[in-house]
C-alpha cells in the first residue's frame, strides 16, 4: 500500500510527517465554488470527494487521502477569507463565542472508499479590535478556514477546545490512522 496525501496544505503534510508516516503528495485542483450546499457536513464531504476526483491513481495499491476543513458558526460557514475585511468579520463573529471546525476526510483506493467528518468545538476569548486588527495584518488568516490558525499567532485567542486539536489544524490524525489500520484493500 502506498499512501498519497491529496492535499497541498502544508499543515496536513506536517501532521503526517509528525507521526512518521510515509506518503507522497499529489495536489488536488478543483473549483470549490461548484459546491453550493450551505450545510457544513455536506460541504466538507462534497469537497473531499471533488478533490479526490481530481487526483489520478498511478498504481493499483495506492490509497489517496483528501480532506477539507470549514468553520461553522450559527448558520454560517467560514472558509478562507479573501480580504482583510472578510477576515475581520470572521474574527469579530468568533470572538467570545463557541464555533465548530469540521474536517471531512476521504480515504480512497481503487476498490473502496471511506468518508468521515470529524468535528471539534472551539471557544474563543473575547477579542479587542486591536487584537483582531493586528492579527489580520499578518499572513496567517488568508489560507485558513475561519481566518485563524490555532497552531500559530491565534493560539492566545483560544479558551477551550472540545475534540481533536489536529482536526482544527486540518487533519484528524487519530481517526484517520484508525481508518487506515482497518482499511482492507480487497
Ligand atoms: C481553523 C484552522 C484551519 N486551518 C487550515 C487547515 C486547512 O489547510 C485550511 C482550510 O483549507 P482547505 O480547503 O481545507 O484545504 P487547503 O486548500 O489548505 O488544502 P487542499 O485543498 O490542497 O487539501 O485551513 C489551520 O491551519 N488552522 C486552523 O486553526
From TrEMBL:
It is an enzyme of class 3 (hydrolase). The active site is at 68 (proton acceptor). Coiled coil: none annotated. The keyword Repeat does not apply. It is found in: Cytoplasm. The keyword NADP does not apply. It comes from the Bacteria. This is dTTP/UTP pyrophosphatase. It comes from Halolactibacillus miurensis. The lineage of its organism: Bacteria, Bacillati, Bacillota, Bacilli, Bacillales. GO terms for molecular function: nucleoside triphosphate diphosphatase activity. It catalyses: dTTP + H2O = dTMP + diphosphate + H(+); UTP + H2O = UMP + diphosphate + H(+). Its EC number is 3.6.1.9. One of its GO terms (cellular component) is cytoplasm.
Amino acid at each position: 500500500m502506498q499512501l498519497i496525501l491529496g492535499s497541498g496544505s502544508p499543515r496536513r503534510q506536517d501532521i503526517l510527517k509528525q507521526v512518521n508516516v510515509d506518503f507522497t503528495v499529489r495536489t488536488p485542483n478543483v473549483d470549490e465554488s461548484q459546491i453550493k450546499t450551505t450545510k457544513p457536513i455536506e460541504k466538507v464531504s462534497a469537497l473531499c470527494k471533488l478533490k479526490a476526483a481530481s487526483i489520478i491513481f498511478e498504481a493499483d495499491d495506492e490509497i489517496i487521502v483528501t480532506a477539507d476543513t470549514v468553520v461553522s458558526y450559527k448558520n454560517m460557514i467560514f472558509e478562507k477569507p479573501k480580504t482583510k475585511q472578510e477576515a475581520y468579520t470572521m474574527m469579530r463573529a468568533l470572538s467570545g463565542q463557541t464555533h465548530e471546525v469540521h474536517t471531512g476526510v476521504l480515504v480512497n483506493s481503487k476498490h473502496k472508499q471511506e468518508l468521515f467528518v470529524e468535528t471539534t468545538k472551539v471557544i474563543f476569548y473575547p477579542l479587542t479590535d486591536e487584537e483582531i486588527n493586528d492579527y489580520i495584518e499578518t499572513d496567517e488568516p488568508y489560507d485558513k478556514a475561519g481566518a485563524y490558525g490555532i497552531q500559530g499567532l491565534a493560539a492566545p485567542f483560544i479558551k477551550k477546545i472540545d475534540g481533536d486539536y489536529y482536526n482544527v489544524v486540518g487533519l484528524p490524525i487519530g481517526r484517520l490512522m484508525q481508518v487506515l489500520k482497518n482499511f482492507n484493500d480487497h
